[in-house]
Amino acid sequence: MKNQIYNIKKKDKQTKVYYAKTFKDINLSKIIGVDKKNILLIYDKKLESLESFTILKKQNFYTYSLKAGEALKDLSQFLSHMSAIHKKYSNIVTRHTHIVSVGGGSVGDFVGFLASVWKRGLGLTHIPSTWLAAVDSSHGGKTALNIGLEKNQLGSFYCAENILIIKDLLQSSSLQNSYGEILKISFLQKQLFSKLKNKSYQSDTFIWALLPSLVKAKYFYITKDPLETKEKRVYLNLGHTIAHILELHFSIPHGVAVILGLDFSLNWSFHKKLISKTAFKKYSFLLEPLVKKFKSKIKILSKEKATKLLLQDKKIKDQKNIQFIFFASNGHLIKTVSINSLIKELQRENYIK
User: Fold this and answer.
1) How far is CA 314 from the centre of its chain?
2) What CATH number does the domain located at 233-348 have?
3) Which of 33, 189, 237, 259 allows an S-S link to 180, with CB 3.0 to 4.6 Å?
4) Which H helix or E strand runs over 218?
5) What is the DSSP string of 181-206?
6) Is the distance from CB of 322 to CB of 306 less than 8 angstroms?
7) Measured at the alpha carbon of residue 251, what is the angle toward residues 248 and 257, in degrees to the nearest 5?
8) What whole-number distance in Å separates Cα of residue 329 and Cα of residue 275?
9) What is the CATH number of domain 2-173?
């Protein structure tokens, strides 16, 4: 088992990332440094059918299962589950309890928020069960709940102390849903991009070997700007402005939406002459096959709906302007653009009528 250690400049917090092939290789209580009686495992109930997860459960922790999915992040769902968990474990949970989340992005968002507010903050460990969560959402401490149809409006920055990435657990999930985030971080880091030129990122064997480098690249931004206040971590939102619109309106997977969002940003950057034709082709080479596969499934948005969804974005500056990340000749560029100009580009790229 190997690990990486990252120091987060928020209350001197440290995150340790561990990689193992199977749960047989780890002693969770020993890694966390907490007795079993002080560990509460909150997990996606569909994992119960996996032999790899059964090995973890046999370590005899307190447990609570829930159904994963975006609906889990509804505020009403949080209140319902929080009430049930508190009722079941109110006499057991103390300030010394450590919460372990096992699941994909929605479970991590939910449990991360729960750990950040319960008893004013409990210890937290993430064990991602999807490639997307292993590459992206488990890292950096963003927790989130939705309010109605508005995505990630309630949340906190609360980094996990430990992240355990178990290969056997990831094998049952779709690698395809992680392509968007893999491409995003690779577009931001040249040394990673050079490794993807032959489209080998579509192999889980290759991605498992590359995973420590992908994670390290994300922490490059997180450690410099943990609360996203210095215009450094915001680069990790490349492709996400349009991705969140498509994800919300069409209920498509986050990773698929990010692919289309990256393509939108790339096309707009080239149209604005921020990148050369050579650079455009270099990025497009990896994106185009996936865009062809997924864009045909997207229906046309109305201008009114697109505008309403954009105004819910957390990168909004005011009712007329939004922060947007472009591809540029010297890397990437953060610019404030008008909502109106973004709508016009959505029309030009045939997303709205």
Assistant:
1) 15
2) 1.20.1090.10
3) 259
4) helix 204-224
5) HHHHHHHH-HHHHGGGTT-GGG-HHH
6) no
7) 75
8) 5
9) 3.40.50.1970
